[in-house]
Amino acid sequence: MEEKFDCIIVGGGIAGLSAAMILARADARFLLIERGEFCGAKNVSGGVLWGSDLNELVPDFGDSPEGFERFINHRRLTFMDDQSAFSLDFKSAHFEQTPYSGVTVLRSKFDAWLAGKVEAQIEQGTHSESSFLATDILVQEVIQESGRVVGIRAGGEDFFADCVILAEGVNNLLTRQIGIEPAYVPADHVAVGVKEVIEFDKSVLEDRFQLNGRSGLTNEFVGFCSDGVEGGGFLYTNEKSLSVGLVLGMKDLREKKKAPQDILNQFKEHPAVRDMLTGGKVVEYSAHVVSTGDIDAVPERLYDDGVLIAGEAAHLLLNAGKAIQGMDYAMRSGILAAEAVLAAREVSDFSGAQLSGYQKALENSYVLTDMHNFHDAVKLLHDPMMFGAVPNVLCDFGRQFFTIRSEPGQKSRHMMTAAVKRHSSYWDLIKLGAKAARAL
Question: Which of 34, 265, 336, 423 is most solvent-facing, going by the fewest CB within 10 Å?
Answer without folding.
Answer: 265
